[in-house]
Amino acid sequence: MAELITADFVDLDLRGSDREEVTADLAKRLAAAGRVGDLDGFLADLREREAQMPTGIEGGIGIPHARSVHVTEPTLGFGRSKSGVDFGASDGPAHLIFLIAAPEGGGDEHLTVLGALARRLMHQSFRQSLLDASDAESVVRLVREEVFGQ
Predict the structure, then answer these.
(1) Residue 94: exposure state from Cβ atoms within 10 A (0-12, 13-18, ≥19)
(2) Of residues 106, 84, 112, 99, the one with CA closest to residue 18
(3) Alpha-carbon span 2 to 25, nearest angstrom
(4) Residue 64 φ then ψ, to 5°
(5) How would DSSP label each residue in 9-35?
(6) What is the CATH number of domain 7-148?
(7) What region holds the PTS EIIA type-2 domain (predicted)?
């Protein structure tokens, strides 16, 4: 199995102003790496999932996620937004955005990733480390160590 997150899936300067824009920016990175076969189809699946319930959580975090027939490999993308993006959290906009892409019928791995990530993101020190990371490789290393124990 390929790595869940790589530097190619990280954008430390998301410029979009809304959730669809930043999610599309991250999804394009996944598509460029062959993890998403049909970008428009995957984005439609993400919008459908987001319409069910917003994916923002307290602490300035957005975790858009979806299972999709358009995803070829479980993948985690990450973006940081200086201005913040509304993902529906009660405490305001998200500055840390994780995109979880899971293949349709791929089991519950994305739920395991979502749970592990959400638990770690409850810690201010982890969130601050993500905000302070100077490059994509630092984010990848941090996520692999802190979330997946690698």
Answers:
(1) buried
(2) 84
(3) 21
(4) -65, 140
(5) GEESS---SSHHHHHHHHHHHHHHTTS
(6) 3.40.930.10
(7) 3-146
For residue 70, give the 3-state DSSP assignment.
coil
Position of tokens 């993101």? 121
Which one of the listed residues 65, 70, 95, 110 is annotated catalytic?
A: 65
Q: Report yes or no: 82 and 105 within 8 Å, Cβ to Cβ.
A: no
Cα separation, 109 vs 116, in Å, equals: 11
- Which pLDDT tens digit goes with each residue over 86-120? 999 999 999 999 999 999 987 677 677 778 888 89
Q: What is the pLDDT of residues 33-89, one digit of tens each?
A: 999 999 999 999 999 999 999 999 999 999 999 999 999 999 999 999 999 999 999
Joined tokens for residue 4: 């869940």
Cα separation values, 4 from 83, 109, 132, 134, Å: 27, 11, 22, 20
> Is 65 among the catalytic positions?
yes
| Backbone dihedral angles phi then psi of residue 95, each to the nearest 5 degrees | -110, -20
Which tokens sit at 58? Answer: 């307290």
Query: pTM for the whole thing?
Result: 0.93
